[in-house]
Every structure is written in C-alpha cells, then in structure tokens.
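SEVERITY: medium
COMPONENT: batch folding queue
REPORTER: lab tech (J.R.)

DESCRIPTION
The queue accepted two submissions in a row. Attaching both inputs and their returned structure tokens so the on-call engineer can compare them side by side.

ATTACHMENT 1
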Amino acid sequence: MGRKFFVGGNWKCNGTTEEVKKIVSTLNSGEVPSEDVVEVVVSPPFVFLPLVKTSLRPDFHVAAQNCWVNKGGAFTGEVSAEMLLNLDIPWVILGHSERRALLGESSEFVGDKVAYALAQGLKVIACIGETLEQREAGSTVDVVSSQTKAIAERISDWSNVVLAYEPVWAIGTGKVATPAQAQEVHFELRKWLKENVSPQVAESTRIIYGGSVNASNSRELASQADVDGFLVGGASLKPEFIDIIKSAEVKK
C-alpha cells in the first residue's frame, strides 16, 4: 500500500466570514482526484472552524492551526485538543515555524503538544524546517533531525502523523526549495525515521513539503519520490489550490 498523497491548506491568520464562504464555495465546486488518490485538509483560523466544518464538501477535512499542550483550564487565549474533538475537528497543525519563531515554541514543547494531541485522538500535521542561516551553515539535516527526534521521543504510534518539512526561508517569501532540495531533505528524514524509529514507520509516514508551493511548481515537486504532498500557505486561499490538489495525479 503506497502513501496516499496529502494536501493541506494553511489559511493562517486570514479571512472574514464572507471571504471564507467564497473560499469554501470555490473548493466545493472544484474537480479533484478521488479520496483514494488524495487526502485534502484545510485549516482556517479557530473562529471559522465551525463555519467551514458545516459547509465544506464531505471529502475534504478540517484542521485547527494549533492547540494547547495539555488539558484546558486557566490558559487564557488557548484552545484545547478536547475542544477540537468536541467540534469534530479531526486534524491539527503543530509546530509551525511561525509559532516556533514568533512565540518561542521549542522543539520539546512542540513534541509535548504532538504527543498530547495524538493521545486525545487528533491527527497531527507536525511541522519542521531550517532557517536560511542554518541552511547556509550546512546544518539543515541536523536541524530537522533534531526537531523530528523531539517528537519521536514522545510518541510510539506514527499512524496519525503527517510530517511537514517547511524550510523557513521558503515560507511566504516566493523562494521555493528546488525539487532536488526538497527530495534531498525528505530522503534524509525518511532515512532518519528508518534508523531511529522503524523501517515500517519510515515507509508509511507521509512527509509533505511546504514553502511557497503554487500551481506552477506543484507537479514537479510532487514527482519527487519522497515528497508525499504539500502544506500550502497563501495559495490555499486562491482557486489555484484546486490545481495543487490535482498534482496528486503524478503519483498514479
């Protein structure tokens, strides 16, 4: 059984009610490969989760962009995994580089979040990636391996984890890792999983790429052996997201 292609749309901190309705309408009318070819998950801001959940086509799923590291309580401004499950939200994005950089989330904290979310029954898109300085210093593989290790040390079941490699220097910058650069890191990540977790986990875990993915580069990126899909930022708010989903066809 091959790894099913996965396309996530991270809407980040964008949208009004009307804009969200328009995006959902575009998604609902889009012609895309069937669910046995591609798994599609979109991630609106917290306040729009119920609206999107109730209006989105049934073959697409919904993710939150974050959740708290533990049970709810006196944590003003946070949203717990239990709340997401209560709303029937199946997925959550954790460890996005914007939260690591802007909010100081450490790899250990992200690992704790991933473990807690999984334990409650959520599926997790776990994000890792290096900065430009780290890439130029030649430490890309060390950085992403260390970030992955912080997750691996805290979980035993990888069946509900999608690993999203997002080079920080490519997010929202218009700079994209070349297909060869993306493949190289994905290959190294899979090798790390094989050597440090298990060959089965390495073979079955989907490793997706994020960083200025758009309709014009998605097919070439998708053709790489170890690229199992995408986490799309800005382009997921536009009609071209449908074309990115269609790039799953290159894996057939």
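ATTACHMENT 2
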Amino acid sequence: MKRKGNQQQKSQHRWKRKLFAAVLLGLCFASLALMQSQYSRVVKLASLHYRPAPKPKIAFLFIARNRLPLDVVWHAFLQGEEDRFSILVHSRPGFVLNKATTRSVYFLNRQVNDSVQVDWGEASMIEAERILLRHALEEPFNERFVFLSDSCLPLYNFSYTYDYIMSTATSFVDSFADTKEGRYNPKMGPIIPVHNWRKGSQWVVLSRKHAEVVVKDNTVFPMFQLHCKRKSLPEFWRDRPLPVDVSKEHNCIPDEHYVQTLLAQEGLEEEITRRSLTHSSWDLSSSKDREASWMASCFSFHLVTDVDNIHYVTENRREWCSSKGKPSRCFLFARKFTRPAALRLLNNSALGASRDNM
C-alpha cells in the first residue's frame, strides 16, 4: 500500500511539473508575442514620424518670349533628378506650356499666371524677375534661384552643376562699379547714392536670403521704374515726345543694374561671389566670324569651358574662379544658342562631360 501511495504521489508531482512547464512555456510564448507586437508598433510609429529630410532644390527660373525652343536639351539635363530642382517660366501673358507648346514634361504648366509684357531695356524685365522669385519662394525647399533665358543651356551634367552651386552659401552675382557716364541718373541720388551704383549681368544665381531681399524691396525698384530707362531710339520718336537733347539722355538698362545695386544698397556685397555662372559674351576674339559660327552650329565647347578667370577692367580686378576651394571653370551655363547648335551639343554628349573637363 505504501508503495502504491508513493507512486501516486510521484505521478501527481510529475503532472504538476509538466503543467507548470506548460504554463511557463505558454507565458514565454505570450511574452514573446507581446514583445513582437509592441516592437512592430514602435517601428510603425517611428516610420510615421521619421521621413528622410527633403533635399535642397535649385529653382530654374526662365524668362522667355513664348515657348522654350531648347526644352529637349533641358529635359535630358534634368531627367532623374526630380527631387533636386523646380522650374518656373515667365512668358508673355496668356501663354500656356502644354503638350502642344513643350516637348518636356518638366515644363508642362510651369508658367506663372501673373506674367507681364516684357520689353527689353525696360523695368518690366526686373518686374518679371521679381514675379518669378515670389512664386519660387513659395516652395520651402528651394534654396538657390537661377535666372535663365530661353536661349540658355547647361554646359555640364546636373550633378556637377548642383554640387557647384550648392557648395557655397554665397550668391553668384556679376557686379562691378559702373564708372561710365550716362547710366546713373542723379535723380536717384536721394535714395540710391552713386557709390552704390553697380552694373553686371542679369543672369544671377541667388541664395534664398537674397531672393527674399529682392522680393521685399519697395525702395530701389520704384526708383528704377521712374529713373532707369533706356535711351529712346529714333524709330520710336514718332510715338514719344522728341527728346530735347539726346546727348543728355541716360541710357540705363534696368536688368543690368538692379540686383547688383540693390545688394550693394543693402550692404550684402560680402555675401556674394562677384561673377556670373552664365556665359554671354561671344566676341572673345573680337571677331564677328566667331559669333556667326556658333549661331551656325559650329560652336566649340571648349571656347567656354576653358575659361577659368574674368577680368573687370573698370575695377582692374581679375576674378579667378573656384569651387569647393579649388580652381575651377567659371561657367555652368551659356546663352544665345540656336536649336541646331543646342542639339549638336546634346548629340556630342557634352552635358555628360563634367569632371573630365575640369
């Protein structure tokens, strides 16, 4: 009887141990499941809160008459870089960039809806620039603002261009003291003293800070509207009052002075690199034949890409070009291309020849 009772006790102890082990194992599995559930929840919440920081963008701001004849080349340049750029176009009022007027999806409906009629040598040109900047500043990730014409092309690929522009906090503004008589109107004196009068190319690259300065300006711009006007031409004298003395007229071209003078007026010249990234002067050899040649699609790529310094005669200053602290070529863009010349540039894969040419 004793032996039988001992066997029953041992059997009960074994059963209890098995039950305890089963309960313990169940608790372990339940704990693991709970931990897995909590971990998944934490990961999900973290993924909702964490998003990769958007990349700073370059806003390409085109001033065009109507359509952009070189949009195919720009399309090749921009393709695959959609998170690093934005585009806005100022063309004549009422013009729409649709499938009938552009061959690139990057330009579809990118025209501003409050454009003005732009006349060369008038303040309407700088008004168009201000309109473009105002719209571009609405995009919070636009950090650089590049002004371009409808005949302008990039000389290198997008990555090289982006790194070049983003490598410095400065704006690129061709700016020098204008000492020649005839441009500055003394009537500006009470607001814009002559020592702040500057000249340069309108094809600037602005930082966001300087773009905001241009848009918020309500002092210099009105003075340009009133007193910076191009000299009247004889063919227009029938429609305008005949000047009393043509020799005393001020031949002021607003877009060649406005941004430069405004930044000087605001004391911001220490924050700019005083050169343009856009090549415009095609008479480097003082030869008319050279200018005609590139218009006829005989453009030599190295004519521009070999330039590594710029000489400013009025200031006796030579600007040696650099990027990231190292000597570099001066220009990223060039103007006045015909469509055949642009297509030749594209077919020769010049847009891909970036670092190899540096």
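NOTES FROM REPORTER
DSSP finds ten helices and 15 strands in the chain.
No errors were logged for either attachment.
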